[in-house]
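Title: Prediction job returns without error message
Component: structure pipeline
Severity: low
Priority: P3
Assignee: unassigned

Description:
Job completed but the reporter wants confirmation the result is attached to the right record. Sequence as submitted:
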Amino acid sequence: MNDTAALPFELERRLTRFVFEEARLLDERRFADWLSLFAPEGLYWVPSEPGQISPTDTLSLFCERKPLLAVRIERLTHPNHFAQQPVTRTHHHVSGVLAQRSSQPGIDFEIHASLIVAESRADDQRWYAGRTTHQLRTNPTGCPQPFEIMLKRVDLINCDAPHRILAVPF
């Protein structure tokens, strides 16, 4: 984030709402609607190392462009998906949202937020905490959303710890 000038209130409210709505789509398992928020070249990235600079220099927990995310969602929603028997339920708690203009080419806004995800499946409950970065551009068509995700980065505080199956996006 390079432009620290305050955004107009209504624009900041719309950007903040976008992040909250994205989390709600994940909690409601509306994965196709969630996917539609991504630009065609959008990237979902969860680094595996603290402070990881590039998704290509080392292995990541997730590093998927929209076409691969579509495959993940198809598997995730398939009735015979073993890792989803029973289905995973989540609650994304998003707070501390800060939205600013971006000076990066092709990126209009950058939004940072704190994230806690409660995940429950069968008798197992897991917790994840971290920070999210959304890089958005204005959707040229304005439909179905006014913004498109160019990058969603989730920096988990325990990204370098061993993890069991991570099926549902953060």
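Comment from assignee: result matches the submitted record. The beta strands are 38-46, 62-65, 89-101, 109-121, 124-138, 147-156.
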